[in-house]
Amino acid sequence: MDDLLPAERKVLDVLGEMPLDFRAMAVVSNLFRSSTAIRRHMESKILARDRLSWTSFVVLWVLWVWGDMEARELAAGVGISRPTATGVVTTLEGRGFVRRRKAVADGRLVIVSLTAAGRRKIAELFPLFNAEEVAVTSHLSAADQEMLATWLRSMLRAVDGGRPSRG
Amino acid sequence: MDDLLPAERKVLDVLGEMPLDFRAMAVVSNLFRSSTAIRRHMESKILARDRLSWTSFVVLWVLWVWGDMEARELAAGVGISRPTATGVVTTLEGRGFVRRRKAVADGRLVIVSLTAAGRRKIAELFPLFNAEEVAVTSHLSAADQEMLATWLRSMLRAVDGGRPSRG
DNA sequence: CACCGATCGTTCGGCTCCGAACCGTAAGGA
DNA sequence: TCCTTACGGTTCGGAGCCGAACGATCGGTG
Description:
The structure is a homodimer.
Chain A: H1 6-15, H2 22-47, H3 54-66, E1 69-70, H4 71-78, H5 82-95, E2 98-102, E3 110-114, H6 116-137, H7 142-160
Antiparallel strand pairs in A: 1-3, 2-3
The structure holds a DNA duplex.
């Protein structure tokens, strides 16, 4: 197999004698490496001009798709912890893109909504974001993309257990 | 296709009329979602007891595989920026796992090495880490794992251009 | 030999990330 | 009605993440 990254060749050289599962290693390391590189790419190419981070963008997008949400649902939907959601919503609130309000029926709950500015921003950005998603995936055939997404979902299920996610 | 996450069904409901590439969207969103979930899983299950983050662990591992490295090479190898590498190395230095020294030949360069404690720590942890890598991938066949890794490398190459990576 | 442009690592500022703990609110049982 | 347990969101502390800028060092040129 001559598809390996140079780093992967070195790993085989140095650790090849050890009883390790290099196939599993390749999956996990390349999953993480490619995900990090794509996040950085999307942030620098599409999001940076609006000074939005990947996660801020995902929050706007989740609210755009699902409408107003309770903060705990928003955290789950975006795939971040509740303290992180608090911080990111605070950032976006400061930018004027979202607002918080207390739920009437249950004083513990906070409802997060898009503002008009937030709605305009995500409606403007998402087609550009999706075009760049196309740019980074179009070297794979449609069938390969579907199979890749299927395997990635299976990886997610392997660690998420029954945790529902709505991002 | 009934393999979609509930979130993905909702996206089709709400944005289905827009001229978007849902296949590309599925690849990128599931890549990110699965990578984040696996990082969290590995951190909580294997790394937390030693209070190591994913990136600290990768730094130790890269030094283990490649030996002493210049700080700029280490940043590239781990896949992080140089300011981030400075911070993570500072953290690990404080924990006694790595040390820094100036290069003799070029006063600008910093050489980063594992300490004896660092070497013991990564040698102890990596088999456990790899066993968990196996746990999260073994639902896929060997052939599927290899194909998945190949596609993930192709995604990485799509955004990395010619940037060499040695993580 | 001096100066200029480039490189390297760090600092700064701002943002993300999360576990533990805290405070306010809700629900259930005695 | 009061007490206890649980839930929700936030705060705290610590760590990671990066672009821009800075200071130290190097190499090349005149």
